[in-house]
Amino acid sequence: MEKDYAIILENVSKKYRLYKQKKDRVKEALHPFGKKFHKDFYAVKDMNLSVKKGEILGIIGRNGSGKSTLLKLIAGVITPTGGTVEALGNVVPLLELGSGLNPEYSGLENIYFYSSILGFTRKETEKRVKDIIDFADIGDFIYQPLKTYSSGMKARLAFAVSVNIDPDILILDEVLAVGDELFRRKSFAKMEEFFKAEKTILFVSHSVNSIIELCTRAVLIDDGEILLDDVPKDVVRFYHQLLFSKSPQKQGIKNDILKYSKQKEKHLVNISNNKEQHKLDNVSKKVKEEYGKQDNIKQNAYYIPNFIPKSTKVVRMADVDLYDFQILAKDGRKVNVLVLNEEYFFSYNIRFNVQVDNLRLGMSIRTEKGLLLSFSLFPGKYEYYDKPIREGDVFIVRWKFKCLFQSQNYYLYTSISSFVDGKIQLLSAVSDALVFKVISSPGSKGYGMVSSIQEANFNKII
User: Fold this and answer.
1) What angle do CA 437, 304, 135 make, to 5 degrees?
2) What is the pLDDT of residue 286?
3) In sequence order, what E strands does 262-305 have?
4) Are 379 and 457 in contact (CB under 8 A)?
5) Which helix H or strand E contains 172, and what residues bound it?
6) DSSP state, 267?
7) What number of other Cβ atoms are within 10 A of residue 388's Cβ?
8) Residues 6 or more apart in contact with residue 266 via CB below 8 angstroms
9) Which segments of 309-358 are extended strands (E)?
């Protein structure tokens, strides 16, 4: 049923004429017998694709496979040579950020200008201007001409406009890495809102982990054709086989993928590819060994001033304050750059301005994309702190954890709740309370993202 779909492509092709020299265009146009001086190149060829409303479709493939061309066709940036493209809803493409902005206009003027290009009226834009300015976070530059902006500032402004106008269909082409590290987390947090709101999202990325984590479905594209449309995990597996294979093997692997795809369509799934999977495992092992190499220099944890999350959110359901968030090394130093395989404490205070009974604390660690790595409870899953807590009491909380994470940024979340009439009631929570980096230590493996919260203590200090 068409009403269930957001995007429908039928036999879509996009053909380009490739000329060896610029003058060949003129020669072809003026040749009396219509001689061709070009070669036809199909960036997309006879493609059929349907995307249901609320789906998050991952699109992966080698460089030059046709991914970006496909997105531009769906976004209406280019028109197909053949076939039909139908997008049922408002489409916002995040392709080449900043390409739709006018360098002579100020940032504020560009908000209205870019929004109009995306199909929004001035009245609709005015309702969102404050949110866009706050999200872009470029200060007084919002009133300066765009030509004075850095490339990062342009991208941030374009991204802020695109994600704050509530699209029905969002198209992402490797743009979530825009801006500095803290802005990237802010971007991923915004994307999480779209995922939860069941927007239709097309996501192109070379990060296969992102495809697996974020997408409900994936397609593998090569030479302008869809080789496989399946669950992300299987699509990524075949993509790796194609990506790491040598040139003489590629056509054979493509044939195997197409054969597998046809079997899936006929519901005759019979995977007997253990040899190829073994080869893939060996490739993955070599990659891990390469990335696992460590320097012989001893690394120490340290603190970066002003490395503070921009995506912190506080939920306060009762008069309970959580504050003074810190990560401490074992020697008591305040740190936010941690060393792999070392132990640390996540520390903060709680002030109770009301009496609370049957208390329980929670702590979690997430990636900058919002992937939950761990969630721990104190005292435990089916337990609660049964000692009386009075109005005015202040406690210090320290979660002890071992850092067993790969080198990137992570965010800490904490919550406090109580049992009331047999039900859990949230009192207060802080998401993205702190951000920390991880650096590797000599000899450590660190291949996976593994949490090892060991213990927590809860001591009254007032």
Assistant:
1) 75
2) 36
3) none
4) no
5) strand 169-173
6) T
7) 10
8) none
9) 313-316, 320-329, 337-339, 343-352
User: Could you read off the pLDDT of 348-358 as tens digits, one per residue?
Assistant: 999 999 998 88
Beta bridge partners of 363: 376, 414
Taking the CA of residue 208 as centre, how many other CA atoms within 13 Å lie in the half-sphere pointing to its CB? 17
Residue type at 281?
Answer: D
Q: What is the pLDDT of residues 271-313, one digit of tens each?
A: 334 444 444 344 334 333 333 333 344 568 888 877 889 889 9
**Hey, what amino acid is at 172?**
L
* Most confident listed range (157-166, 273-282, 355-364): 355-364
Q: Write the burial class of residue 88 (CB in 10 Å: 0-12 exposed, 13-18 middle, 19+ buried).
A: middle
Query: Rounded distance, CA 328 to CA 371, Å?
Result: 24
From residue 450, alpha-carbon distances to 129, 243, 340, 346, 453 in Å are 41, 28, 11, 17, 10
**pTM (two decimals):** 0.60
Any residues with CB less than 8 A from the CB of 455 and at least 6 apart, and which? Answer: 400
Whether residue 238 contacts residue 228, with contact meaning beta carbons closer than 8 Å, is answered with: yes
* pLDDT, average across residues 121-125: 88
The residue type of 175 is V
Amino acid at 319: D
DSSP E strands in 174-216: the ranges are 200-204
What is the DSSP track for 104-149?
Answer: TSBHHHHHHHHHHHTT--HHHHHTTHHHHHHHH--GGGGGSBGGGS
Q: Are residues 345 and 328 in contact, defined by beta-carbon separation less than 8 angstroms?
A: yes
Assess contact for 444 and 399: CB atoms under 8 A.
no
11-40, pLDDT tens digit by residue? 999 988 888 788 778 777 777 777 777 788
Please, what is the angle between helix 247-265 and helix 232-244, to 10°?
160
Whole-number pLDDT of residue 111: 92
pLDDT per residue as tens digits for the range 200-222: 989 888 777 678 777 889 999 99
